[in-house]
Amino acid sequence: MTNVYTLLKITDKLTLQFGSDPTGRFFLCLVTIMWILVGIYAQKYKEHQKHNARFFTFYILTWVMLASLTMAANYLTMYLCFEFMTLLSMPLVLHNGTPESIAAAKKYLFYSIFGATLGLMGMFFVNTYGTTLAFTAGGVLDPAKIAGHETLILWVAFLSIAGFGAKAGLFPLHAWLPTAHPVAPAPASAVLSGCITKAGVLCIIRLVYQIYGVQLLRGTWVQMALIILALITVFMGSMMAFGEDLMKKRFAFSTVSQVSYVLLGVFTMNETALLGALLHAAYHSIIKDGLFLCAGTIIFWTHKEHVSEMKGLGRKMPVTFGSLAIFSLGLVGIPPFAGFLSKWYLASGSLSEGLPVLSWLAPAILLLSALLTAGYLFPICIHGFFPAEGEPEAEGKEGSALMLVPILILAAATVLIGIFASPLKDALQAAAATMF
Predict the structure, then answer these.
(1) Structural domain boundaries of the chain?
(2) Which pLDDT tens digit goes with each residue over 298-313?
(3) Which of 5, 92, 390, 416 is the most buried if burial means most Cβ atoms within 10 Å?
């Protein structure tokens, strides 16, 4: 961390500090750009809805805490920003005020606080067995203090990492995602999927590489267990999305799967896989924000929420469905769209790590998940543009410019950062190198 600023000093170890490093700056830029684009879209989407002042207040405050989280310089600051972000983002889920949205918000709050509590437990142990709570490449645990307590520390590391994984939708703490997304307004669903899940990813990166350290975790049962959980989540999320007809819920299960691609790269613990993880974090944010905005546009103008109701809609809404097709190609990972390069590095990193069974099983599951992704995304586009002959077509119209411009920007980004990938790849490669 550079340019560290101490906001409050409680004890020598317990301080509220903010700073900057390449990984934090990457996530800050990512969430800020997505927040602006979705915010522009929301101006039209929320035009005729109630309680807009409340929605945009919590929308902005959630970004403030997310931005603070990306700049947190130590464990305590990260934990506090994480908890405040959860509390401030919960009103976005319950905004509609229906019994379903209230129940979903409670579920979101329970899972997030339970996971963060496991993270808090980890902070107590790090404070006892570490030299500092400040994020430091290689970890902060004192070898002399942890001698004889290695088993305890590994269990603490596993539980605290899995706890922050709740926000990222890691099995078995993933259930809030498919519950919260369908009931939240489309702009809220977009940032929940594209940005807020990345808060969990960032916290996990901090713990693995800058608190516990790769040297402690690599090759242990903790690494194996975390990789297995990530692979289970990748496969399970894809399978659940494949069988789901409600469009926003289908995209929510897709998020469960795709964010665990990122976690797989983090848990593999080598530079190639971590590069793939950071690339996929960027690609997924762009693509999934785009998909949820497309879903919101379709629902806004047609009031149709199920995939089976959208036959022929592509002819009425060509820009929206054309963009949806681009996002689908990117999420599947078909070159040259964004999504291919990240999966390439994730698979390469897994194979080079040489873990028994998992080194080849991980690429195999990634490939199977890509096929399932094609299976649950492509039919939306195909039936939208090419309904069966004689089948009744849905009625609809193209959205307004205020809704289409953010979607088109995200669609263009999906193509351009896939074709011209070097600048982003080089920047993230440098960020990944600082973790080792």
Answers:
(1) 2-433
(2) 888 888 888 888 887 8
(3) 92
